[in-house]
Design goal:
The protein is mainly α. It contains eleven helices and two strands. The chain has a two-stranded parallel sheet.
Length: 198
């Protein structure tokens, strides 16, 4: 999971800031006119959209999934929130309520951010067929692995063995991967292969 500090570093990129500000303006205007959220926290909400998509794969968010999403939201919020109101968690409620209307736009933002942060050379190196998955993970750029684990896993340490998953969730992760540009990465294909279907 991205840390608050990592979100801050990503948000320093001027091109990323433009993407975040554009989507934030559109989202707040249409979904939450009187809701206030910083650019940092809205970028966190953008990254959280993949977890929301996975949770809603069967059109229902269970209590356990809701608690997991709340925990992720609180971890990503600038300044750290434990008891008090949390802007990312509050923003997530608006996103869940109208997820079908915003899903594609949020994934497109991740796609654009991904291609801003990673050069073609980095992607080419990450796709080197000479490595096995475990070696590829160890040799890939740090930020690429953080993206992969933050967008699709509950715990970073599960990157080598993501465990069991329901087919509906697996299909959703695969679909999201295509929409955010990860399908072009051999490391993502191998990551999917590591899942065990329930």
């Amino acid at each position: 999971m991205f840390s608050e500090a990592e979100i801050a570093v990503i948000n320093e990129n001027e091109e990323v800031q433009k993407i975040v500000e554009s989507l934030k303006t559109d989202f707040l205007e249409k979904e939450a006119k009187y809701f206030e959220i910083s650019a940092h926290d809205f970028l966190s909400l953008i990254f959280l959209s993949t977890a929301v998509g996975k949770a809603m794969a069967n059109d229902h968010i269970s209590f356990a999934e809701e608690m997991s999403l709340q925990k992720k939201a609180r971890k990503l919020s600038k300044g750290g929130f434990f008891i008090s109101k949390d802007p990312v968690a509050d923003g997530m409620k608006y996103l869940i309520k109208s997820f079908k209307d915003w899903e594609e736009k949020f994934y497109k933002a991740i796609f654009d951010i991904f291609h801003i942060l990673f050069s073609d050379e980095t992607i080419k190196r990450a796709n080197n067929p000479d490595y096995h998955y475990e070696d590829r993970i160890m040799n890939a750029p740090y930020l690429l692995i953080r993206f992969l684990s933050s967008l699709f896993l509950e715990r970073d340490e599960d990157i080598l063995n993501p465990g069991k998953i329901r087919k509906v969730e697996f299909d959703k992760i695969s679909e999201i991967g295509k929409k955010i540009g990860f399908a072009e990465l051999l490391i993502f294909t191998e990551f999917l292969d590591k899942y065990e279907l329930k």
